[in-house]
């Protein structure tokens, strides 16, 4: 008996593996599945990681990363793609070249969501300055939408965001670097009573406000939001609609986050299985 289901929308994540399953490509694939999207991977690094922290990182050779992109995009095709942890300057440059080859990015038919994983949960840099510069010059100009948290904003733009005006300045800076849209997330904004994200397209701002939940279990939140946006783009949504959906999706995932191990648990899309 042969299957009769048609091919679903497809999305590609170019990211590192989280052995604890809370973030990285595992969170991306979980999110794609929750949106009815077939997920594909180009693995950039393998981390030795659990709920307490990261104990080790092994980079995948840059040529292998690029070949994974070419392989799946050339055969299966991708309705949208996202990046996560890219680990090194060499990987960033190889990814940028491969994306151009297969037609992914703001100047191509397939949209690219850039989640510039550049800072730890504590705000510490994860990339050397040379790699940060490669993100600025190689990937931000290719991004359909870039989704940094406030620590990543500081590392990429030099702007230390402390209020909404700072979010606006950061969004303008990223669009000036070449991104088509910039989503500046407010989850790390201290003293705020709600969680305000700002989307900027070079012409105007869209404010996306939501509740702030009292939980420490937020591992993988940035990955999940970016993956939700990517999945909606793969399904044909516009950037504003995809971002608005992603905002609602991550709110529910944070509300349904759960403890895991001895440290910080993940945000959870498992609620989708109950609806």
Automatic annotation (TrEMBL):
Keywords: ATP-binding, Kinase, Nucleotide-binding, Thiamine biosynthesis, Transferase. This is Hydroxymethylpyrimidine/phosphomethylpyrimidine kinase. GO terms for cellular component: cytosol. InterPro entries: HMP/HMP-P_kinase_dom (IPR004399), PM/HMP-P_kinase-1 (IPR013749), Ribokinase-like (IPR029056). Pathway: Cofactor biosynthesis; thiamine diphosphate biosynthesis; 4-amino-2-methyl-5-diphosphomethylpyrimidine from 5-amino-1-(5-phospho-D-ribosyl)imidazole: step 3/3. It comes from Haloechinothrix alba. GO terms for biological process: thiamine biosynthetic process; thiamine diphosphate biosynthetic process. Catalyzes the phosphorylation of hydroxymethylpyrimidine phosphate (HMP-P) to HMP-PP, and of HMP to HMP-P. Pfam families: Phos_pyr_kin. It comes from the Bacteria.
């Amino acid at each position: 008996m042969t299957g009769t289901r048609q091919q679903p929308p497809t999305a590609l994540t170019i990211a590192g593996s989280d052995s604890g399953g809370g973030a990285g490509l595992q969170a991306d694939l979980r999110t794609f599945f929750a949106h009815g999207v077939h997920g594909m991977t180009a693995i950039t690094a393998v981390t030795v990681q659990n709920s307490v922290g990261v104990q080790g990182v092994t980079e995948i050779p840059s040529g292998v990363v690029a070949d994974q992109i070419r392989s799946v995009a050339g055969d299966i095709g991708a309705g949208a793609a996202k990046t996560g942890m890219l680990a090194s300057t060499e990987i960033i440059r190889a990814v940028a070249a491969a994306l151009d080859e297969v037609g992914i990015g703001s100047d191509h038919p397939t949209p690219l969501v850039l989640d510039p994983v550049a800072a730890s949960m504590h705000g510490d840099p994860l990339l050397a300055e040379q790699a940060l510069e490669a993100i600025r010059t190689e990937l931000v100009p290719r991004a359909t939408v870039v989704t940094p948290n406030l620590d990543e904003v500081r590392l990429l733009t030099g702007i230390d965001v402390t209020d909404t005006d700072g979010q606006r300045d950061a969004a303008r800076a990223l669009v000036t670097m070449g991104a088509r849209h910039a989503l500046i997330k407010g989850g790390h904004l201290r003293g705020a009573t709600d969680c305000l994200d700002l989307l900027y397209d070079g012409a105007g701002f869209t404010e996306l406000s939501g509740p702030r939940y009292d939980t420490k279990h937020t591992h993988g939140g940035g990955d999940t939001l970016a993956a939700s946006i990517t999945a909606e783009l793969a399904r044909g949504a516009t950037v504003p609609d995809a971002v608005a959906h992603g905002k609602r999706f991550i709110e529910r995932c944070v509300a349904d986050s759960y403890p895991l191990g001895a440290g910080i648990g993940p945000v959870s899309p498992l609620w989708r299985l109950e609806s």
